[in-house]
Each structure stands twice: as C-alpha cells, then as structure tokens.
Specification:
Helicase, Ruva Protein, domain 3, Rossmann fold
C-alpha cells in the first residue's frame, strides 16, 4: 500500500506542475503584448517585464530584472516613477512621459492588493505614442489628400455641366436656368431680381445666347445707375443733330436703336429717374422711340430684360417707381438667390475663378483645405462678384503657390475659425470636438446617415448615435 506521505507528495507535484503551467502561460501572455508590461514589488524592485521594453528603450529586458526603479531613474532610463505614485495614491495612475531616447510614452500603473488591502505589487503598462502619432499624422495627410482629390473631382464634374462657364450645381440655379432656356425665344419682358453680385447680367446674357435674337441682333447692356440722369435719356433714345449744345453734328443713335432685333439689358432699373420711367413705359407699349430733338418716331424690335437689387414693389408704394411700369416689366420675374443660399455653387465657382486667374496671369496657384472651408462657410455679402474678386486678390498678393487662410485680408479675420489650445483640453474633449466638426461638415454634403457613414468609413448606427449626441440634424446647416 502507498504511504500517506507519497500521496501528499503526488498532490504537491500536481500543484507544482499546474503552477508551472500557469506561470508559463502568464509569461507567454505578457511576452505577446505589443505594449510594455512592467511588474514591480512594493519596494519598487522589478520582478518581470517583456521584450517590448527593448523596442522602446533599446535595452534588453533581462537588464531590468531585480533593478529598483530608483536606480533606473538615477541612470536616466526613467524620468519619473509611476510605481511610487501608485503606492502613494493606492489607485491607478496615468501620465505621459518622454523617455531618454526622446520617445513619447503613455504610462499607466495599476496596484495589486493582497488579502489585507495592502499594495503588494504594481503592474505598469507602457505604450509608445510616437508610432501612434506618426500613424495619426499619416492618416491626416491621407485625409487631406483625399479631400483635395474629392474637391478636384467636384470641380471637374461641375465643369462638365457648365455652359459658357455658368455654374449649375445648386437646385435653385438649375431651375432658374432651365426656366431661362424655356423663355429664351419668348419676347416677354423679364425682370431679374437679386442682391448685388449674384450674376443677374450673366443670366441675361444666357437668355440672349439661347434665343434666335442672338443670330439677328446684339446684346446691349446699360447701367441705369451709372450714368448721370441728364445724360441717360440721350444714351437710351439718342438725339438728332443740333438737339442741344455740344451734340454731335450728325446726331447719335441711342441704345434702343443699337439693340434693334436683339436684347436690351437695363441693369439697375430701380435707379431710373421718374421722368425717364414715363418715356420708357411709352416705348415698351408702342414699341417705337423718338430721338431727343426729333420730329418723328421709329419702330424698334427690342426685347427688354431689366434687373435690380432694390425692392420695386416697396418703391411703388413710396412713389419712387411707377406702378404701371413695374407691371409692364414684371411679366416674367426671376429671383436669383444669394450665394449664401446656394452653397453648393461656392466650391465649383471658387475653382473656376482660380483657373481663370491662373490662366490670365500665367500662374499655378492652389488652395488648401482651410481656405476652401472658409470660402464655403463665409456669408459673401458681395456674392459671386466678391468671391471672384477675392480669388484674384489672394492669387496676386500671396507669394506662396498654395493659398491658405492666413493669406486672407485683415477685414476677414473675424470670420475665420479661432485657434484652439489643445494643450488645455483632455483627449476626450479633443476627440469630441473633432467628431463634431467632421459631422457638421458631412451633413452639409450628404443627405443620409448611410452616405455619411460611407464617407467617414464607419457604421450607420454610429453616425446616428453621434448625430444625436451632438444634436446635429441632416440638412440644418445646408
């Protein structure tokens, strides 16, 4: 029979084998970690670490075993002891340090308690942030490059549907130009309304280009607000010889005669003096003009397109504009929205103007994403004209081949995004701010959470959750 001592010995052997196997398994787990795992006792003596420490410090793991963290600090291998902080606070402690080789590391120490609630060991995890930072920088660069490619594709796509460099991206402008095409060969008077610089004259020229009148007559434009009132009548209707002192001895035809069989574009019609409003009304009704100093009338075949940035109905109420002339002009009213109401047009217009300026001055300027974002978010009180002028101004004034937000004139500074001090923000706050900014931009471009998820390379439920978190609605910033 087996003795009791031999049975106990076998049990102990089994326990030893089991403990050895568990130790081997634990060593394998620790060794397989990409991050450094560093275990010390309550006195700061190193008990165990893995090979990852050699990748970060350049020193083999065997060197550390049995070494006290204080000794490692004296040698300059460690700058600060996380072990001591864990022992003092008896809780997990995290810090970011640069080691002696200059690598940025995230160090997190966790206490291991015994049965009496006392700290007996400290397990420290060391993560190399340098590689992570390099990956993030590479990702940012890739995203910037991807964004520039997308903007270039959008520019090329917008150019493919243009006619005579007319941007037709926004639904409003597509509807307006479709209407203009339909009424091109109808002789009804058109009244174009809109703020200064929205492109009223471009639309008028488009109507002319699509009409049969473009083959028979000219497109003549006159700005009713740019010519002194005492000269405007002679410009419109012409004069006979000797009509007034200084008149041409042969007389002079007015623009109505010059536009015969074509289109006359009366820009800033709201600036037309009341006395001339009467004469213009008679001309429109009778389709004939009489030169200043003349004794007979002449039949004309002119289509009128008028435009103004003023509220003609309000002017009629105040008595500054004739009601009968207003209704004679307002046969086909077309309202062109401001640029801030059709932001889809900003990006293609921006690159169209940049291309035109580069070609005009033999340059090769480019625009970075920060400036592009500013152009997209700015309210453009001067509309398309202000945008075109700004592109030309920046292109000529900047010494760099790549235009950035720093090249903007001082008067635009209050509309540029302010720098944020990320040093005073937690990592969570930085991430949330970046997420919110990315989502705010995405809802301006895409119409569904599915499209946003595809663009941002994440899942649709994640997008739905994040939009709810930041209280962002699709379409509210469009």
């Amino acid at each position: 029979m087996r003795t009791q001592s031999s049975t106990e010995l076998e049990v102990l052997q089994q326990k030893l084998n089991k403990a050895t196997a568990m130790n081997r398994e634990l060593d394998a787990i620790i060794e397989s970690s990409y991050d450094v795992i560093y275990i010390t006792d309550v006195n700061g003596v190193t008990l165990k670490t893995n090979s990852a420490i050699e990748r970060i410090t350049g020193i083999p793991k065997e060197y550390y075993i049995g070494k006290n963290v204080d000794a490692l600090m004296k040698r300059g291998i460690l700058k600060d002891s996380i072990t001591q902080k864990v022992l003092e606070k008896k809780r997990a402690v995290s810090t970011i340090q640069y080691n002696y080789s200059g690598k940025e590391t995230l160090i997190t120490g966790n206490p291991v308690f015994n049965d009496h609630g006392e700290v007996e060991k400290v397990v420290t995890n060391i993560r190399d942030l340098s590689e992570l930072n390099e990956l993030q920088a590479a990702l940012r660069k890739a995203n910037e490059l991807n964004k520039s490619y997308k903007m270039e594709i959008e520019r090329l796509k917008s150019r493919s549907v243009n006619e005579s460099d007319i941007i037709l991206r926004s639904p409003q402008m597509k509807r307006i130009y479709e209407m203009a095409r339909r009424i091109a060969d109808v002789d009804a008077t058109v009244l174009i309304l809109g703020e200064t610089g929205v492109g009223k004259d471009v639309l008028a020229k488009y109507v002319h280009s699509k009409s049969v009148r473009s083959k028979e007559g000219k497109f003549i434009k006159i700005n009713c607000g740019a010519i002194p009132p005492d000269l405007l009548e002679s410009e419109l209707f012409g004069y006979e010889r000797g009509a007034f002192t200084g008149a041409n001895s042969k007389g002079k035809p007015g623009i109505f005669e010059m536009a015969d069989n074509g289109i006359l574009f009366l820009d800033e019609i709201g600036e037309l003096p009341l006395a001339l409003q009467v004469k213009l009304l008679r001309t429109l009704q009778e389709r004939e003009i009489r030169r200043i100093g003349g004794t007979h009338s002449k039949k004309i075949n002119v289509r009128i397109i008028a435009a103004t940035n003023r509220n003609l109905k309000e002017m009629v109420t105040k008595g500054d504009f004739r009601e009968d002339l207003y209704y004679r002009l307002n046969v086909v009213p077309i309202v062109i929205p401001s640029l801030k109401e059709r932001k889809e047009d900003i990006s293609p217009l921006l690159y169209l103007f940049l291309e035109m300026v580069n070609e005009k001055y033999s340059l090769k300027k480019a625009i970075d994403s920060s400036l592009h974002d500013f152009f997209y978010s700015y309210h453009w009180p001067g509309n398309v004209r202000e945008l075109a002028n700004m592109v030309e101004r920046l292109t000529l004034m900047s010494q760099s081949d790549c235009l950035t937000i720093r090249d903007l004139p001082a008067e635009y500074a209050e509309y540029t995004p302010k720098e944020e001090n990320s040093d005073e923000m937690t990592l969570k706050e930085v991430v949330e701010r970046a997420e919110k900014r990315a989502l705010s931009q995405a809802v301006k471009t895409y119409n569904t959470t599915y499209e946003i998820a595809q663009a941002l390379d994440t899942s649709q439920p994640t997008i739905v959750r994040k939009l709810q978190k930041y209280q962002i609605k699709i379409g509210e910033n469009a």
